[in-house]
Specification:
Chains A, B: Its cofactor is thiamine diphosphate; Mg(2+); Ca(2+); Mn(2+). The structure is a homodimer. Chain A is α/β, with parallel strands linked by helices. Helix content of chain A is 43%, strand content 13%. In chain A, strand 11 (426-432), helix 18 and strand 12 form a beta-alpha-beta unit. The first copy, chain A, is elongated. At the A-B interface, helix 6, helix 7, helix 8, helix 16 and helix 18 of A face helix 6, helix 7, helix 8, helix 16 and helix 18 of B.
Chain lengths: 663, 663
Amino acid sequence: MTSREQHDRMANAIRFLSMDAVEKAQSGHPGLPMGCADIATVLFTRFLKYDAKNPHWPDRDRFILSAGHGSMLLYSLLYLTGYEDITLDQIKHFRQVGSRTAGHPEYGHAAGIETTTGPLGQGLANSVGFALGERIMNAAFGNDLVDHYTYVLAGDGCLMEGVSQEAIALAGHLKLNKLIVFWDNNNISIDGPVSLADNTDQVARFQASGWNASHIDGQDPEAIAYAIEAARHSDKPTMIACKTTIGFGAPTKAGTNKAHGSPLGAAEIAGARKFFSWDYPPFEVPADILDAWRDAGKTGVKARADWEGRLAKADAQLRSEFERRISGTLPANFDAVITDYKKKLAADKPKVATRKSSEMALEIINGAVPETIGGSADLTGSNNTKTSQTKNITSDDYGQRYVHYGVREHGMAAALNGLTLHGGLIAYGGTFMCFSDYARPSMRLASLMGIRSIFVMTHDSIGLGEDGPTHQPVEHLAALRAIPNHNVFRPADAVETAECWQLALEQEKTPSTLALTRQNLPTVRNDFVAENLSRQGAYQLAAASGDAAVTIFASGSEVEIALAAREALEKHGHPTRVVSVPCFELFDKQSADYRKKTIGNAPIKIAIEAGIRQGWDHFIGTDGIFIGMTGFGASGTIEQLYPHFGITAEATVKAAEARLHGE
Amino acid sequence: MTSREQHDRMANAIRFLSMDAVEKAQSGHPGLPMGCADIATVLFTRFLKYDAKNPHWPDRDRFILSAGHGSMLLYSLLYLTGYEDITLDQIKHFRQVGSRTAGHPEYGHAAGIETTTGPLGQGLANSVGFALGERIMNAAFGNDLVDHYTYVLAGDGCLMEGVSQEAIALAGHLKLNKLIVFWDNNNISIDGPVSLADNTDQVARFQASGWNASHIDGQDPEAIAYAIEAARHSDKPTMIACKTTIGFGAPTKAGTNKAHGSPLGAAEIAGARKFFSWDYPPFEVPADILDAWRDAGKTGVKARADWEGRLAKADAQLRSEFERRISGTLPANFDAVITDYKKKLAADKPKVATRKSSEMALEIINGAVPETIGGSADLTGSNNTKTSQTKNITSDDYGQRYVHYGVREHGMAAALNGLTLHGGLIAYGGTFMCFSDYARPSMRLASLMGIRSIFVMTHDSIGLGEDGPTHQPVEHLAALRAIPNHNVFRPADAVETAECWQLALEQEKTPSTLALTRQNLPTVRNDFVAENLSRQGAYQLAAASGDAAVTIFASGSEVEIALAAREALEKHGHPTRVVSVPCFELFDKQSADYRKKTIGNAPIKIAIEAGIRQGWDHFIGTDGIFIGMTGFGASGTIEQLYPHFGITAEATVKAAEARLHGE
């Protein structure tokens, strides 16, 4: 057998596993695996540095299937090369509840799935974080421990999505030359030929953003190998435009959108078997080909062993720091550092915006936790995301800790996910909360994957003032709280901000959003308490002088208003409690007793938040009083806006007393 | 005075009004108006076709300030040229509550503000819809009635946002040659030099997407004029990269990020006055310059009068159709057409997915309403957005009614807004509901502007099956309902789908989202009722056999489950009502009596929706039973998934009976 025959048969193993699995599931996307099998075979047999039996080896090359609908390509590769999570049985149960082989590759379902993809453009945009993470870790730990490539397979859809431009511009700017993207240039999208909707010269576009880019025959193994070899020695990121045929080998559907997203049907598959002279029953891979694939899965064994040798011989402190960071564990003194800082705050009682409190907390955190990587989508001075420790990462110096992401909220969020998934880093990035809408698809994926990306969202209400309703979040707190497995923190002062940051860093399997004010706020937690009270999500901040007639729940900047309303109500003889609610999600995880006690039995329950009511009924019931927004904000000074929208202590007192007097 | 001196002084009037207004407000962005005053002056004095006293003239050229933070540029122009909405007093009350001169330009606040901008990239992406709308209307009504340009001023931020790539790729593909974009190429973003985050060759990038693009000195009036003249005769859209100095004229802040987003301060403004020899007090424009500007505001008077003459002489039917469409009024027979269709449905009782019901409704609507423009972000066959009347719009044929937007959900949503704002068209576009996240920033702006964009969101729950949690909306209904002034419709069958489409088309000041299923559903509205019952947002679909022990609220695909649960509960002797809830927002607008009656007094209230609970407490109270999702979905067949997540009639009955038995 010539090496070309061997290549073809190995590639065909991918093609038939993919066709057969989609056919059995009666659901899925055979076209991409059939068209890209050559690219994948060349990559996984000749270039990718991996060890299928040790899939978490930190210095492995990463392979990211950005065109996630082609999941059977990845599952086939993982099975063929011998990853233990993906057995033939898993392939046979493609797209069934309980299988690791979900419709789209899901991070955590199996080793070898580096990130969750499917929503188009996300994998490509994640890859910028992966490739940047590699460079940052390389700068910290040297070539001996960190030196790997990030390979991406992206489709036409990935490149049409706007986030692709954010990603490629950022990668080009940062000269991430170990990032290598294959574009599956098959001219077909779901609606038909790509030319129905696009005539972009993608190669020229990537070049305009600082990439190497060129066209190749994406089904010619030697052309693929040559292009990869060149890309590995480039000083820029590389995009290889691989001309392929979608559904290659399907007699009538190849090259058409009919091969994209549905089972080919028995006749087409039979035709493909004939075309490829593949005389094996469904799911059967001939022994010699399976052996060849299993050998490919072992090509990295030596490299991995050598790497382990180098790690073992490395300076003990360096090694233990590397291992700590890769494990995701915080430094041992982290809690003590935060507690000390809280003591200082209790003494200082700063009256600053929580965005400033966040900067102060980060100054402490970034000093204690060397793996944090900060950044902002061109709002550094407004998001207060930069501290004394975080200098700019540039293409000349990856040994720093701050990324100017540009006006690219979506690309930033996707890159944060990539940095986080790479391992060894804790990444946070800032923008205005209103623009969380731009970043939302990636924020959702962080939640679905269960990873520790941290989103710093300042200017969290009408309190931002004159920029007006285009910039004023109203529905965003509710919309972010709606995302499962996403902690939305809205601290009320510098103490809660420190506590919320502590919690965000602790949560290894939940991303966090910190909602922070533009405007100054007083310290409401005046007495030092070692315990992180925000951990409970909601807690009694001020007790009533007697049996509570009123309980006021509030978050963030409105806690100050709640306390002022309480004071007035108490003066008028109405015992009133205040409950601070920095995090709905953590409150929901408390015991029923704690929740019941915290909500309490006051006949009048009020919630104050400069956002919409949605979600607050949980605390105040459907007949509770809500002081907040019912529509969009307005452009004006903060002094104008809070009274304009009736979010004041006076309005709260008035509403409470109207109810107390039975109106 | 030479014409250059005249130009300079006219441009300086913009500069000083902008500096002075920002200074008085102590808030705002002086840098862009100072740098772009020359571009604006050339455009508004020599090219733009407008009549300041008749600002709604349908055939005016459009000017879109995509870099919306430079709002004082636009307000200055509107005041100087004599738009009545923007008086000097408005300029003096820049960014104050109640002023038309909001922080960012807000559609509806003043004539001449063609779209709301501020969130970066949106204006540029809207402009694709404006320019396409012009071509579509031109094809329908001819050069005599529709023949105008769309000019856009975009900043570095607009071009860094991913949506810009979606927009320019689409505009290039459609060869929208009457779209002319000025890029304020000032090298400065908020964090500092653009080079901190970007090295993109923007001219090359636009060229790669099928645009003309070239560099000019953006402060040389003749270079600007020459470039505009060339652009107006191009067969492609044009991007003019205008090299400018941000804050031009400010002695120490010009050319730096200090001129971007804060008042310059008295010393800088005094320095600028000296630099430009502008010896007038704040807000004063010398009479000769104001006169010259007011004359510019009248340059379109003749063109407008000529146009009115042509309209008056046009074929009477064409004229009345043009006027009807521009007014936004539906055809007179629209209601009758829908009522007839509902009669047919009551007879046919189709058992189809609501995405198919939507296609059936659109087949009727597109036949009756010639101004609808359909489209999809590359999911035409899945979104069912195409009907027999809507053939593809191409660069060779704008006289059609369907846009293949490509895999560009965000660009599509922004283009829908532009098509809608252009006037004369009703635009809808489809994607999977999960990817409403990608489109969300533009969907929010549609809501803020109060315009009739229609978003068709199919595959609206775990019911989509095998594609898995990356594609299964869970939080999206809640998140979309959170947006103020946005009607989220989730019809239960073909009849409700027709009603919801009718409502979406009727709502001239509220955008709509239609949430539609992939899976088949039975007709639940079996008897013909002429009245649009969905108009109330929620209504009793099935009465209880006696005093209701249980009320079940449900939307969309879960109404079928609610009816099955009701049947079982009735059989077990528990009188049970079912309330169908196609639209929360419309229900909230009903009378208190209607709402009270519809919610009713049943001791047990249950809501069923294959999404999260958030928002449903409004119907069932905090102690109501919710049958739905609490986290992300899974990949599997629909037959597996509904039982897997406990969303079944059996689970509903069990939960009800447990409560009935006091468990």
